[in-house]
């Protein structure tokens, strides 16, 4: 069965989408001011990378993949050319614009890195998940290590986004039932309940609607069973609950009391238009706040849900 599908590409641009979200939820104005520039810079980075073709994706090994190894887990880091540093500067500017409290730390970082080879070392460190590099570099150059790591991680996302459509084709015939992304291995930043697209008894068990997860890194969407915790895979229905918003009935957060993780969800079944998952989580930060007040942890840390 094919349960992996990329979202339609009929999205509006991020700026238009953010304006619409702002009208819908004016109370979250501060959130859009702070994180809108990051979403916009991410989109600009993706647009830059339309020209970047310097990657060869691995072939999927069905056995390993279906046991839960994401497609890109075995891939060597491709040559990001000059694009990684271009995108790193774009995002640094956007984070400083949205979060003025960080702007001094960010100028120290950009001053220290401009014109050096260090930026490419950052890309390698993110790719290899080698956090020691950030600490080392932060110490050596007197930089804020956690801001450095945030910027470096944000700058890799447009590359993952660039590769994900081609990657999705390599795994489209394969089964994936994990809560993390089948392409890049990151956890989701939101979930979408969608109308049933295909007849399939297994996925009908939870009554009407399919659960799709949206990757916090590469923007891929994949389908998983409705009644399972994407983090710990518990299927204990007594421990899987959700809290629906009073005012906005299509929005909620789902929690697992086995592992104390949560994720935000939009029920799209009655919506006229599919939300733009690149920015929709910004409109749900009020749910992140409630969930974290109740001591649940997000599955994916994003700039806006580290409260
Ligand atoms: Zn992903
Ligand atoms: Zn769990």
From TrEMBL:
Listed GO CC annotations: cytosol
CDD domains for the chain: FdhE
One MF annotation (Gene Ontology) recorded for this entry: ferric iron binding
InterPro entries associated with the record: FdhE-like_sf, Formate_DH_accessory
GO terms classed as biological process: protein maturation
Protein's name in the database: FdhE protein
Organism: Maridesulfovibrio ferrireducens
Record lineage: Bacteria, Pseudomonadati, Thermodesulfobacteriota, Desulfovibrionia, Desulfovibrionales
